[in-house]
Amino acid sequence: MEKLLSKDLLGIKDLTVEEMNLIFETADKFKEVLQRPIKKVPSLRHMTIANVFFENSTRTKLSFELAQKRLSADIINFSSSLSSIKKGESLLDTINNILVMKVDMIVMRHPDPGAPHFISKNIKASVINAGDGTHEHPTQALLDSYTIKERLGNIKNKKIAIIGDILHSRVAISNIYALQKLGAKVMICGPSTLIPKHISSLNVLIENNVENALRWCNVANVLRIQLERQGSNKFPSLREYSQYFGINKKLLDKIDRDIIIMHPGPINRGVEISSDIADSNNSLILEQVENGVAIRMAVMYLLSLNKLQ
Question: Which residues pair with 219 in a beta bridge?
Fold first, then answer.
């Protein structure tokens, strides 16, 4: 396989294992580029890419923008707070007004699940989903899987625990799809109030005791408590959440074996994870950030191949 089957990347659910491995192999090559003194290639100098973010984002937006610059693309950054959407313009009209400026690809984050899918059906440009509501965040899952593969050699039969706010997390859903396709065993862990009712239909193990989850897993991917998405309190307090579900040195010392720690960020230090664990040798948090640029370079490059046909 030499290119992705679709013009878009909307979710992990739509990718084949072959496509995921192609993205990883391409990311390997771009990671080599990022180690050079001149960290730039002309691969997308013919492309104009619009970053269209209807939700606040720091890491994802910066990662995509840096990946685009490393590939020599022309970039348009769109902020919804300054847009005509505030004046009543429809989402599709806003996107079409961007496209008429000869944009080839759109990286889109939107608070409504399915918004990138709707746009992709109505435009010819490629669409990359940078997060749609609590639905999916495909490039985060790809970089997480890539980081695990890089550390452990492969993912098949590895045990991955996703711990924290599963209910409000698009990262969790995309990770479940990606890890299972690659042959991993997946457990989710958190308070019962933060676990979706029908999550068992995804064939994952469910655990409410964080110590049990850590004793089971090779890798713990710890998720942020998303207070901004919670309409009502799902647990008594952050202090109590930290006491029962926080990952700290005392807990890991009790288990007394090496567990890889990951976190998609931003970290609430002292809530879901303590600083000494986030900054430990077992933590791959900074590797995730570094790999995010290479994975996003790979995705955009591979999608661009469809445009050249």
Answer: 160, 260
Query: CA nearest 306: which of 168, 145, 124, 181?
Result: 124
CA proximity to 126, closest of 307, 295, 297: 307
Which one is the CATH code of 138-284: 3.40.50.1370, 3.60.15.10, 3.40.50.1000, 3.40.190.10? 3.40.50.1370
**What dotted CATH number matches 12-137+289-307?**
3.40.50.1370
Would the CATH topology of 12-137+289-307 be identical to that of 138-284?
yes
Q: Where are the domains of the chain?
A: 12-137+289-307, 138-284
24-38 pLDDT, tens digit each: 999 999 999 999 999
pLDDT in tens, the chain (309 residues): 788 999 999 999 999 999 999 999 999 999 999 999 999 999 999 999 999 998 888 899 999 999 999 999 999 998 765 555 555 678 888 888 888 889 999 999 999 999 999 999 999 999 999 999 889 999 999 999 999 999 999 999 999 999 999 998 999 999 999 999 999 999 999 999 999 988 999 999 999 999 999 999 999 999 988 654 444 466 658 888 888 899 999 999 999 889 999 999 889 899 999 999 999 999 999 999 999 999 999 999 999 998 765
Question: Is 160 in a helix, a strand, or coil?
Answer: strand
From the DSSP assignment, how many helices (H) and strands (E) are in the chain? Answer: 11, 9
Buried b (16+ CB within 10 A) or exposed e, 24-48: bebbeebbebbeeeeeebebbeebb
Cα→Cα distances 115→57, 97, 133, 282, Å: 17, 17, 9, 37
Q: What distance in Å separates the CA atoms of residue 30 and residue 22, rounded to the nearest whole number?
A: 12
